[in-house]
Amino acid sequence: MRSFVDELVQQATEAGTIVNGHKTKELLIGSVLKDPPMSVSLSGTPVERVTTFRLLEVHVTNDLKWAQHVEAISFKAASRLHFLQLKRSAPAKTIYGAVTCIRPGA
Fold it and tell me: Residue 31's domain spans which residues?
């Protein structure tokens, strides 16, 4: 595993980019969870091992189940519906504030 990490850092350096060990996460999937390997470090910085992360607005967990992603999407939808209900019952002056809250983030 260490050789793959070293090769990744070398390729990134050759391409003129830097691999940031503080922002890098490690997610173990499958049978590796039973006997996890040693922790990985990038340029002396230990890589954080996580059980879930968000990639391109999709929540990925180490058991590859959809429960957390569905929960996050449901929460976001409920929040937006709440603002739409506020907009319907609010005076015309506060409609602008509700519209700016509904906009998707970048």
Answer: 1-54
